[in-house]
Design brief:
By secondary structure, this protein is an alpha/beta fold. The strands form three sheets. Strands 8-1-9-10 form a four-stranded antiparallel β-sheet. Strand 3, helix 2 and strand 4 form a beta-alpha-beta unit. The protein starts with 5 loop residues before the first helix and ends in a 9-residue tail after the last helix.
């Protein structure tokens, strides 16, 4: 089983933080508030499965990356009172809104309303039973901004708050239909050691959801929205790592016997 090299990851994180610090110093005269930059980890796959899902997959991380951003939870109409009562007894830091499907449909049907809702919260959660309804209601605005709701299981659970904290304490991944996908893994305001921990442990948890895991991973890089991508892993060249279709075609070609030439 392959794994990331801690020394290589640390060097990349230090270089990235130095780059961001230098860039921030150049902008310090214009910027009134220093905002933490989100660090993303970018995976490039060798082959891409035919069927992909845009469903958010929760990923556990050893260190919280969300800071003080507020969260909104979408629930079934009939469950709102039960869930709010539970959260009143055991509050979850950061979760400031519980919204029913009925209210979402009634108050946020217009594009501008959806855009305002998207901007009002840092993260959205949804009862996994109503995800299909919510996806159609929030629309393309949320998906383009990578803010599609992350599923949580609140069905009859006594430990609803614990489960929500676990989801909020991590991150989420979306397996795109292309060869590359990225995951928010840290921010530059974190200690270097904590960023490295998140990258190494987060990578293990992420690849557990990728078909063939390490064997299907061509490269891994880290970057922010305005930095270059810094490599932390590159697979060794291997001619056997071909798409399934190509392998099948090559096998057929190798077993094909040419017809004898016709006599003149």
């Amino acid at each position: 089983m392959e794994q990331l090299d801690t020394e290589q990851v640390t060097k990349a994180v230090v270089a990235l933080k130095q780059f961001l610090k230098k860039k921030q110093a150049q902008k310090s005269k214009q910027a009134l508030v220093d905002e933490n930059k989100t660090i993303q980890i970018i995976f490039t796959r060798i082959t891409v499965p035919r069927n992909e899902s845009l469903k958010a997959i929760p990923i556990k991380l050893p260190h919280n990356i969300r800071g003080d951003g507020e969260a909104c939870l979408f629930v079934k109409d009939s469950d709102k009172d039960r869930i709010k009562a539970h959260l009143k007894d055991d509050p979850v830091a950061g979760l400031t809104k519980v919204m029913t499907i009925k209210k979402l449909k009634k108050n946020y049907s217009q594009f501008k309303d959806k855009r305002e809702l998207k901007a009002a919260y840092g993260v959205f959660l949804v009862d996994d039973r109503v995800l299909p309804y919510v996806k159609s209601l929030v629309g393309k605005t949320f998906f383009d901004a990578k803010k599609q709701p992350t599923t949580v299981n609140v069905t009859g659970k006594k430990n609803i708050s614990t489960h929500i904290r676990r989801v909020l304490g991590g991150t989420e991944m979306f397996l795109s239909p292309g060869p590359c996908f990225n995951v928010k893994i840290a921010h530059d305001g974190m200690d270097t050691a904590d960023i490295v921990d998140n990258i190494i442990q987060g990578t293990k948890n992420i690849l557990a959801h990728v078909p063939k895991g390490w064997k299907n991973t061509k490269s891994i890089n880290i970057k922010t929205s305005d930095s270059v991508a810094l490599p932390i892993y590159n697979a060794l060249p291997n001619s056997s790592k071909l798409p399934v279709e190509d392998k099948k075609r090559k096998a057929e070609d190798s077993t094909h016997t040419p017809l004898p030439a016709k006599k003149a």
